[in-house]
Amino acid sequence: MSPVRPGGVDSAYETSDLVTPPPEKTRLDLILQSLSRITSPTVLADLHSPQRRAAEWIADDDLRPLPDGMPVPHDDYPRLYQRYSLAVLYMSSDGPKWNERLNFLSDSHECDWNDGVWNDELGDYESKGAFCDPSMTVFDLVLYDNGLKGTLAREVGSLHALRGFSVFMNELGGTIPSSVGNLRLMVRFDLGRNLFWSMMPNECMNMIHVEEFMLDGNDLTGTIPQELPSSFPNLRHLGLGANTLGGSLPPNLGNLRRLKKLELGSNRIEGRIPSSIGSLRSLTVLDLSDNRLTGEIPPEAFDLELASTVDLSGNALRGTIPLRDEGGSLPSMKYLRLFGNGLRGSIPSAIGTLGDAREILLDDNNLRGRIPESIGDLASVRVLGLSRNDLTGPIPVNLARCAEAEVILLGENGLTGTIPPVLFNPREGPADLAVLSLEENRLTGPIP
Asked: Considering only the top CATH level, what class is 318-448?
């Protein structure tokens, strides 16, 4: 071995031959590596993304130790993913400006990220936030009307045990992430009254256990998936109203045998109402108003024994009102709204069988003939609208038997004869009558 010069190094250990050990990975590095399984590394690399900020919070600011006291969990440990996904949800929806923070991003376990919030309408506290099952897995997220703004993070789809997710009445926008299709155990899914746009992800059809599916009050486009009735066999409430959905109604709607509320109003749905709708024997609310529906009202739609609300107003429906003369149609009816269509024929005498109805609106159609005497059998009606039709003949004296009536609209028809004085007699007529509209008819005689 040759001698070493003072201040030099042995030629066997030249600097160029030394191997520099890789720098030890930081806690953040290890966390980012683990999170790359559920979030794109590109997104995690963006220092301004909610995902990166959530990861940094867990690495640098989260004082609660992760599993087993380890600085970083094992790659396959779900504890990190759950806490991270909730943190991303918070940061992507402007969490610091939520109405109530609900203990999110506190040092406590994420199963304690909830709180009681006072509700003026209920006059009591209600619980909001994240809730867990006995295994400490989040199964319910209740964040409605809490000032959420921004977008819905795709990481929500990583909370596979979710059975309830409610963020209605916030200001969340953008597209609904396709990752929600991973929530296969979902029972109640409510994104209503937000700012979501674009099409409903087809992956939503993976929620085969869903009972309440509400996306109403957004700006969703596209069509109602034709496979929806077969994909949601347990559905009880479908709320897609107040969007810009087009296309036609699925012909097999009747397969939703457990459905209680069908609310599709204020869209651009076209075509006919399928006759299979008569198979919805549990239906209590049918709202197809303000669409572009055509054709006749299928008689089966009036065979819904439990329906208390049928609203088909604001369409282009034709034909007659399919109330059976022998009665038996819509025995539970409270609100019947057929105004703003092109319905023809006469008002069926069977209308008197709707004795429990509180509101019957047939305005703005092409109905002809006389107002039937059976109209007086509507003992519970409060609002009766027959204006802007082609009705003729006298005002039935029996109308005074509508003792609960507060508003009666008969204007812009071709009614003749005199105004029955009994309508203004609180002892024999409706005592609380506030509005009686008779303009633009052919009535004669004095005003009582």
From this structure: alpha beta
